[in-house]
Amino acid sequence: MIQNSEINDILMECYKSDKMFCKTLFPETFFGPMTQLHDEIFNLTDSNEKFVAIAAPRGLGKTSIIRTKVAKQILYKDSFFIPYVSKSHDAALLQTENLKRDLTSNNLIKKLFGPVKPTSMPGEFQESFSKKSWVAYDSLVMPRGYGQQIRGLVFDNKRPDIFVIDDLEDDDLIENPEYRKAIKQWFHATLLKAVSQYSHNYRILYIDTLKHEDSLLQDLLDSPKWASVRLELCDDNNKSRVPELISDEKMQEDYDYHEQQGMLDVFYREFRNLPVAAKDAVFRKEYFKYYDPMELSQNRNIEYVVIVDPAKTVKLHADDSAIVGIGIDTKNNKLYIADIHNGKFYPDELYDNMFNMMIRLNAKCLAIEETSLNEFIKQPVKNEITKRNLRIELVWLKARAGDKDQKGKLKRISCLAPFYRQGTIYHNPAVCGVLETQLMSFPRAKKLDVMDATAYVVELLDIGNRFFEPLYSEEDDQIEEDEYASLYDDCEDELQNWRVA
Asked: Helix crossing, 406-414 with 449-463: angle to 10°?
């Protein structure tokens, strides 16, 4: 028979360790081995960090872990108002109902903590908190989906003291930039503002799988404010990082299956928290070639152009404006990405930056994406050209019908792929890091601005009738000389015996 002192020791160990709590009280859920990846999750959930973001792959039981964390908060009376947030109310409701079942059907919990009897919300609270919210051990558990009201809710004079956010971003909608912008707005303006502004006794636990470079989760992983971790089930060679859970053979089998189905991106997202499959990437690191700007300075065959892709706003959620200087060498069939300047510019800053680049490169052609910015850009640019007494070619680039939205931009950027595969584009290593980062994340890059501006060079080449010339080498000249010699030998006798009547 277990003595009270032993019970107290068990309770204390479970209180100090989420891992111990899971294995001790929910052995049927956590029957598999705990791995180093699980330990990395528990290190964050056990910590005192206020803001926690975890990118966990499929197969680790991340939802079970986070749901059990809520059970612990309730049983030890550490939290009294717990919103459980997911991509939809139904998804959140499913997990809170599972949580309720975990608490009420677990015999060990009954022995250690006494029976748990969840009760429905009182009638006066049902409209605000939903009928599906419930109270157990004085803790309110409230399922909430993306977009639902959270801000301003108070229960028994208490505001939410721990947010548990599980699988918030929708796989089917994440490709839409407007959805990504909206969910970030809701998260920062609504959810994070639902906590008490006077008490710092609250936590935000966010766990999900990384689905896009521009996702909310990626923003949190990048933020120094958030304690975070990104976990992978395997390495670049498909070797399992958790062999006690998944063997190397099983990992390779999963990889091969997804490759056969043409779905490597799914494998990388679900198992490695990488939005783009490296093998199937449109733009790969090995495509990037480099040049020395000093060695290029004497090349008289290069015509420099400056391409400008202005953003419509300087708000933080917008793409940056991008200014890209490109050297075009049609004789040698090469394009040189010579200079890049991107950022959130006010109009006067944009004009200064693009004309300064024109001067630095001695460029004679300025090409600007027009779209709907006529009044914003046309007259001021012409005015600046006149004021600066510049003699340049000014080209207005117009996005074709269907090329103005996200899909159109991706289509335009993809036109660069043949140039990279053929090895005709060369990068200035001092400035092209931002371009390479965006290209290697295509089509799920966090931002499109620099590579979209660069892609306009294809249209500019066509507009200006700039076409690559045939390439000749000394070997070609020798072949041609040998052909002429052969022809001469064949008719030498005839040439020696000719007569004039």
From this structure: 60
